[in-house]
Amino acid sequence: MAVKIKDIPKNERPRERLINKGVENLTNEELLSIILKSGTKGVSVKELSTKLLCNLKSIKKLNEINLEYLRGFKGIGMTKACELLASIELGKRINNEIDNLKYIKLTNAKLVYKYYKDKLIDKKQEHFYCLYLDSSKIVIGEKLLFIGTVNYSIIHPREIFKEAYLLGASAIICVHNHPSGNVTPSKQDFDMTENLIEVSQILGIQVLDHIIVGKTNYYSFLENNNINI
Asked: Which of 76, 84, 100, 177 is deepest in the core (most CB within 10 A)?
């Protein structure tokens, strides 16, 4: 028979231990139990938390889970899944060196990399973002435009520049990750960048940079003299 939270002595329950001992002294299972709040029929919340952590094998793997994974986990419904994912995302944002680029004046590629490195570090597919800037190089918008496979991403210039017109942007910075961690541009990266520059010259919206984000470093087309501004 599963041990329910109410059957545990009050001073040993996760919430009471947090209050009396401090959050830093709780185990991973106890922290997860507080977020999940309750178990399911025949399974206590602590057992549910332990089972989830055992399946993941490492607490760090929580960064990689998604709604589909949690919905397939017995004992975790939509509400629990959403609450857990929201908690994980808040933790990621707290640890980001820069929590928001909007209204920041971008002066170098390193600033962009600092923002995106934690956002993209665990992604298994390429994610292509575009930053939209005004004439003073201040960010007025950001949009995730494409998600591709590990080795391939289809980029449509019309989607990139359509958003620029909607925002009244004067310039753009493209950003995407290489899940392998190797930031060396592929031939496709060079071809795509060249294509975007050609379109930008016709439309009058400048491509300021294209930045490839890896796990520990980045590649800037501007810094490597592949873009002239």
From this structure: 177
26-31 LR contacts (CB < 8 Å, sep 24+): 28/53, 28/59, 29/53
DSSP the chain: -PPPGGGS-GGGSHHHHHHHH-GGGS-HHHHHHHHH---BTTB-HHHHHHHHHHHHSSGGGGGG--HHHHHTSTT--HHHHHHHHHHHHHHHHHH-S-S--TTPBP--HHHHHHHHHHHHTT-SS-EEEEEEE-TTSBEEEEEEEEE--SS-----HHHHHHHHHHHT-SEEEEEEE-TTS--PPPHHHHHHHHHHHHHHHHHT-EEEEEEEE-SS-EEETTTTTSS--
Check the CA dihedral 57-63-65-67 and report its sign.
positive
What angle is formed at CA 206 by the lines to CA 205 and CA 211, rounded to 5 degrees?
130
pTM: 0.64
- Tell me: the pLDDT tens digits for 134-159? 999 999 999 999 888 645 556 778 88
- Report how far residue 120's alpha carbon sits from residue 214's, in angstroms, rounded to the nearest whole number: 8
